Amino acid sequence: MITVSCGDGRLGRPAMAHAERPWANIQRLATIFALLLQASVGFAAPWTATAQPTRLLNGAPVLFQVKSPAKLDSLTGTWLKHTFPFSYNASTKTWFALAGVNYDTPPGVYTLELSGESAGTKAPVELSKTFPVARAQYPEIKVELTVEKKFTEPSPEQLKEIDDSKKVKEEYLPRVTPDREWDGNFKPPVDAATSDVYGSRRIFNGVAQREHQGLDYRVPTGTPVAAMNQGTILLARFLYFEGNCVVIDHGQGLLTLYFHMSELKVKEGDAVKRGDLIGLSGGTGRATGPHLHVAVRWQGTYLDPARLLQMSLP
Ligand SMILES: [Zn+2]
To answer: Cα 124 from chain centroid?
Structure first.
């Protein structure tokens, strides 16, 4: 690359030709030396482990990409007490995994532990790399929202319904299917403006709630809602707070959730592709009006959907 650009410079500025020639020769020698060095220690070429985005934040998803000098059969990562498998992209010879940083993770430096198995010999390969995590700025929205009493002071029958919904979530949401189903970028479920962001703190009837675990889109009832990526329908049913909800399993513990819909257009077990219709938006469950609440859950941790939508993924 360097040699080519020097050549271009000489063509444009013939008077500089003599002055640049010795420098070009030095560069050529340096290139040859580098190639020889690489050939002699090729087997020991360094590993690289990178993160996207480069600045990690609490609440944000992260794509780890690893290049290994030796061929591997498998690669597993451990990060913030989560263990997850990497997938291999043969065209870029890169191992990759989508992970995240919990909302409650304090700023600091954290270690990604990598363990792999060499192809053929099955010899274990261990490696680690540290990444700093900075604190994200999430809005404090001090607005008084009024919701029906059944959500803040439920009756005994309503408590039973709440408990039933809770059991369904406890049964389904922690499921981790080993194979990755998501493929490429995530797409917004609707083409609309957002009305509340991830991480904001809201107040219901004067009582402070925990941070908002998803992204709200301002859409009227009946707006078609699309799958954000490829996956399998894990849940498609009515839950007390979530209303008519759909949960898509994208594999390896990554789920997308869609709440408050007026109508469901898929059933549990269905395979969906990115952009497929999964339901119509509404205001069912604990909602102050029609809107679509979308959440991204990775191995029990809710991540910022807006940041996932910005990522360029393999
Ligand atoms: Zn919401």
So the answer is: 28
**Domain check: are 234 and 120 in the same one?**
no
Q: Which residues lie across from 298 on neighbouring strands?
A: 254, 301
Last residue of a domain, one of 91, 115, 134: 134
Q: How far is the CA of 180 from the centre of ligand 1 (A)?
A: 26
Residue 196 C-alpha to ligand 1 middle, in angstroms?
A: 7
d(CA 100, CA 312): 15
Structural domain of 109: 44-134
User: Are 161 and 256 part of one and the same domain?
Assistant: yes
C-alpha 256 to ligand 1 mean position (Å): 13
What are phi and psi for residue 225, nearest 5 degrees? -110, 130
Distance CA 88, CA 66 (A): 9
Q: Can you tell me the distance from the alpha carbon of 10 to that of 17, in angstroms, rounded to the nearest whole number?
A: 5
User: What's the 198 CA to ligand 1 centre distance in angstroms?
Assistant: 8
| End-to-end Cα spacing for the chain | 26
pLDDT band at 143 (very low <50, low <70, confident <90, very high): low
- Cis-peptide, bond into residue 53, ω within 30° of zero: yes
pLDDT digits (tens, 9 = 90+) for 288-300: 899 999 999 999 9
pLDDT tier at 100 (50, 70, 90 boundaries)? Answer: very high
- Separation of 211 CA from ligand 1 center, angstroms? 10
Between the alpha carbon of residue 263 and those of residues 65, 214, 223, 245, the distances in Å are 39, 20, 10, 9
Residue 201 confidence (pLDDT): 83
Residues 153 and 208 in one domain: yes
Would you say residue 190 has pLDDT above 90?
yes
